[in-house]
Amino acid sequence: MTTNEATLSPTAAEKTDNSTTLLYAITGGSLLTVISAFLAWTWTDAFPGNLTLYGYPAPLQMLSLVGALLTALYALSALGTKGLGWLAPKGATKALRFLALGAAATTWFTAAAISVELGGIVHLEPGAYLALVGSLIPALAAFKLTDDTRKAAATTTKLPSWAEILIIVGVYALGLFVITFGIDTDDKEPQLFIAYLITVSLAATGLIKSGVTDRFAEITANHRQVAVIATAAAFIGFPFIQQSGDTYTLIAVNILIFATVALGLNVVVGLAGLLDLGYVAFLGVGAYTAALVSGSTASAFGLHLPFWAAVIVGALASLVFGVVIGAPTLRLRGDYLAIVTLGFGEIFRIAMGNLDGTSGPQVTNGPNGIPNIPHLELFGWNFGEAHDVLGITLGAYANYYLLMLLVMALVILVFARAGNSRIGRAWIAIREDETAAEAMGINGFRVKLIAFALGATLAGLAGTVQAHVNTTVVPENYVFAGPVPPNSAFLLAAVILGGMGTIRGPILGSALLFLIPAKLQFLQDYQLLGFGIALILLMRLRPEGLIADKRAQLEYHDDTADQAPTDLATAKAGA
Question: SS3 of 487, please?
Fold first, then answer.
């Protein structure tokens, strides 16, 4: 190195000093944002959310507050503050960039929304300007930090079991609060939901980049039973904390139905690698079957079977349709199979519309569907009535929500057992290379037919509950693409977006694809365009999905090829 090069190159000490200055700037800017959350951001309550109060942050201000606090915590962790080192096992720089960007994006979006909604920046109060400046400083400074990414070291300090259990309980309680906050946002306040999406997505990405989520995964692996109990308690507790009745519980019920059907499609698409574009028809088969045998006044059969019998009949009907449709079509591959399944979905919808006594036999009441499906009653518990449990009133949709939790738990159990079984490994082999799998002795047609039949059965199971939740079944509910999920396009998008071959992926994808149209109804005419753009970006930036299967990660990212799991059981576990 020449003398001039040595003079121009910053020393390690200078780099450290520069990073320290930037971290202090990030901390200071975040504190300004926190302070601004307790000030008024506008002078009029004409803007949704009432950001005119002092000392009491509105929900939109609370999102900026949370983002700023997380940014400050990670900045202090990077400064070496005692007790905060565990926040960033893989380094704090990338986490800080996403966290600071999230806080700034939320704050600037809120200010822009106020200006657009009320007609100019003149409607901003000094608190808003303080928030804009305070959030911008960390966002600019974070991207000037030197990257400190490192490989996460194995946990050396073993926490007591009680401390790890408390961490699990606390994290799941926090997760329940975050999910409830998103579901409970008012449909008339799209600004709040958009800001929520910005904050949660960027904050979650930052936490993942820091490695703290991997650390939490290690803790849950050490206490698997506690994690399962905490997960169940968080989901069961949702309807008990709904103060506005069943308004938002219905959204949760539909998300569970959507997610359950997506898990069934995940067997076909994610495990077996079969492109099914008419899968929503199996949901319709289960729903129509349940409607016909559950005592509806419009039923052509006049049957009123108990729910357990209706579930079995609906699941079996979908199974039969899966076998009947799959037997002649699964000898096709690729695009040809996709075209045939798309045709089956449309044939089902048209056939249900023609069985009206005029164009065909009187079975489904044609386009008018089957209305007046009675509410379920199990062991004397009427699902259509409100019930008091532990002093809390649970409405009708809360009853169906708890029922769908049981159905989803059953579907998850079936998916997990099937995926890790011998037939599950055969599905994966078929998905990776059907010709090679058949050369190794796998009966490709039989294996694919089993996947098709199992996926159809799971969809039919969810359809029997959907019929009772909606109390009516019409053909328009089962189209390839439409404004309201679940439909075949949305189901396929949920599996791809969440992560094919995983359990958590389709659940997350379904939640996002149902919540976004429900909360952003003003974008209803453009939602298919938006989801198409989102999927294109996903294929470019994260083709393995939001929650990746290990095999997919290794396939799509060459830089992780040397990190392939050495344990075959780990590789088989997928997600």
Answer: coil
